[in-house]
């Protein structure tokens, strides 16, 4: 008895990965305004119903793409908090620079896709909830890195990992979304040095105790 091999991809195999890959490519090529859910489905070779069942709007799909991009950035704990933060921040800044160029025009600096995501999160509560969930999950890793550094004495005992991370991330997104200034080659290392200097200086309250 002979069997005939089934043609095509097994049903459901790698569907999410193909969709997210196609969506990422299309976003980089066309930007937010030129981005079409139907074309994503065509590129990923899936039915439109399959796509919409997973992500009901293009904003939901973009959030999923951003989550994948973030997950592709490794966070390692080598025991050297400066090295680890600079490595992590340089990867984040490089990714944001690529996203900044999506939708940029000759008129001047642009926050590109990042600004569109922020706007979508403000317009639609469910998209905002999805964005916050993505960042909360992802930020848990660098927060744990900072907590580990504090536990081994690399930071002041009263240093707050959440505040340190807010200083780092806040500076990056302020430059991206508000001033539009370029990050520059040594921006990440300078920012980390400045923030760590404060986190390693005893606070007046700790000195008095």
Question: How much strand content do the residues show?
Answer: under 5%
Give the integer mean of the pLDDT values. 84
- Which regions have little confidence, pLDDT < 50, spanning 5+ residues? 1-11
Which shape, going by the Cα principal axes? elongated
**What is the number of helical segments per DSSP (H or I, 4+ residues)?**
10
What is the chain-wise order of helices and strands?
HHHHHHHHHH
Compute the separation of the termini in Å: 85 Å
Structural class: mainly alpha
* Number of E strands: 0
How big is the Rg? 21 Å
Summarize the structure.
With 209 residues, the protein is mainly α. The protein has ten helices and no strands.
What does this structure look like?
The protein is an all-alpha fold and 209 residues long. It is 68% helix and 0% strand. It contains 10 helices and no strands. α2 packs across α3, α5 crosses α9 and α7 crosses α8. The longest helix is centred in the middle third of the chain and has 27 residues. The radius of gyration is 21 Å and the shape is elongated. The N terminus is likely disordered.
Write the SSE topology.
Layout: H1 15-30, H2 37-44, H3 48-54, H4 58-71, H5 81-101, H6 112-123, H7 125-151, H8 161-179, H9 187-200, H10 204-208
Helix pairs in contact: 1-2, 1-4, 2-3, 4-7, 5-7, 5-9, 6-7, 7-8, 8-9
Task: Using brief descriptors, characterize the structure shown.
single chain; 209 residues
């Amino acid at each position: 008895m002979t069997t005939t091999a089934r043609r095509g991809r097994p049903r459901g195999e790698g569907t999410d990965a193909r969709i997210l890959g196609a969506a990422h490519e299309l976003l980089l090529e066309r930007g937010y305004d030129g981005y079409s859910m139907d074309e994503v489905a065509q590129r990923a070779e899936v039915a439109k119903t399959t796509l919409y069942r997973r992500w009901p709007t293009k904003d939901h799909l973009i959030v999923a793409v951003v989550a994948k991009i973030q997950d592709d950035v490794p966070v390692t704990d080598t025991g050297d908090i400066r090295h680890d933060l600079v490595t992590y921040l340089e990867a984040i800044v490089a990714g944001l620079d690529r996203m900044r160029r999506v939708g940029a025009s000759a008129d001047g600096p642009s926050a590109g896709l990042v600004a569109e995501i922020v706007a979508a999160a403000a317009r639609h509560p469910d998209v905002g909830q999805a964005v916050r969930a993505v960042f909360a999950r992802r930020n848990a890793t660098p927060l744990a890195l900072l907590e580990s550094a504090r536990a081994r004495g690399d930071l002041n005992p009263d240093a707050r990992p959440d505040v340190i991370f807010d200083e780092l991330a806040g500076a990056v997104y302020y430059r991206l979304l508000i001033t539009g200034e370029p990050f520059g080659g040594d921006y990440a290392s300078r920012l980390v040095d400045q923030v760590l200097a404060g986190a390693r200086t005893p606070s007046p309250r700790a000195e008095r105790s």
